[in-house]
Amino acid sequence: MPLQSTLQVIAADELEQTQAWAQAIPGSCWEYASLCVRARVCHVFVKAGSETWSSELAVSEGDLAYVIFTSGSTGKPKGVAVTHRSIVHLIEWVNSTYNIDHNDSLLFTTSISFDLSCYDMFGSLAAGSTVHVAPELSPKKLFQVLQKGHITFWDSAPQVLQQLEPFIGALDSLRLVFLSGDWVPLQLTQMLRRAMGDGRVVALGGATEVTVWSNFFEVGDLDPEWRSIPYGRPIWNHQYYCLDAQSAPLHVGMTGELYIGGVGVARGYVGRADLSERFLENPFHPGRVYRTGDMVRFMPLRPWGVYHNSCEVVLEFLGRKDSQVKVRGFRVELAEVELSFAAQGLDCAVLALPSACPAVLVAFAPRFWFFGSWMCCLESQNRKGTCHIFWSDSQVCSVEALPLTRSGKVDRQALEAWWAQRRTAFRAPITKQQQRVVEAHHLRLEICSEILK
Length: 453
Fold this sequence. Notes:
With 453 residues, the chain is α/β, with parallel strands linked by helices. It has three domains: 1-57, no CATH class; 82-321, Rossmann fold (3-Layer(aba) Sandwich), CATH 3.40.50; 328-452, 2-Layer Sandwich (GMP Synthetase, Chain A, domain 3), CATH 3.30.300.30. The protein is built from eleven helices and 22 strands. The chain has a seven-stranded mixed β-sheet. Helix 3 (84-97) packs across helix 4. The chain is globular. The N and C termini lie far apart (52 Å). Residues 1-51 and 303-311 have low confidence and may be disordered.
């Protein structure tokens, strides 16, 4: 899979360590070669008027299908080697389970460097579906393409579709929506279900190292106690394990690290034997597992047995193992804080950032619900006893909208840069008008402080 030059995240020494190979058709070789240090370009020629490649290669299920780069939580790209068996298995599961065929049209909104694109390209074309490429990700343009192209199948990160919230009621051509790559907001799924009628909304998850998706949850009625859409259960021929630090299985309700086994487990990281140790032999089942670094727990699905009348427990995703921070002596899981606000219908991103103290929590919230909704949320959490004690020294920043990466996830690096750029020391008011503004904000902050206490 090609690397996008616009990402500019892969250092030359890291590419040299990976030693990526590029395969290209003459005429576009320069584009790929310029992105790969020490790359070997293999020319593949097509005979004029022929529908087959002139160089016929015998391909087996264990052969390499593609290498796609992922940075994960480290920020350093790693090339994941995926076999034909793994990607074909995923395509077969999706197309068979959701009856994807030549009557479907998919809107391609995902960056080609993001692993969702692997299904969008290979899976849709394997089913004979039509693939429409979105010219840009502005809400207005996306809505126009959705209507004109009679799109039936949507596949993206939740935040990309959430931009279309004002238009969701008019998306009557959609019959299937896949949401993955980030937290799936509760309210978004219900808006979609109302707009789509008999359509299906599916939340998916997994890791690039286990071929795009390896678990799913088809959204129905929401349980009032849910804080987020459940992670769900494994797809065909995959196993999920919640293990402790000694790699022992944990009981339902206990938090542990997620290990994924099954057909989708990749070969490993290309040229990175030091990191490939995350791919282990499966101690419970023939095959291999991938150690994800995700914290999860198995929880009962309420009411019991509703899910396809067979599954009584589902997986709940609790965040990354490496996303814990320390604030005022408390160990804080940032994902837990975000989920507590998401349960109140407030979409925000929470980061631990430098301030006058060593670190404070900063919540970045869209302006359209900024002050009134935030205060209502804090009051509600205070009544329920879920208002975090470490939140009292933290801050809330209003932004036009949460910035997104090209893969559709919240761009936390952009928020950090925004914070660093706008942090300034307090300057005393000079004019009477400035004094009135300061007094008004001081009064509001006092009210907020009383609520938090």
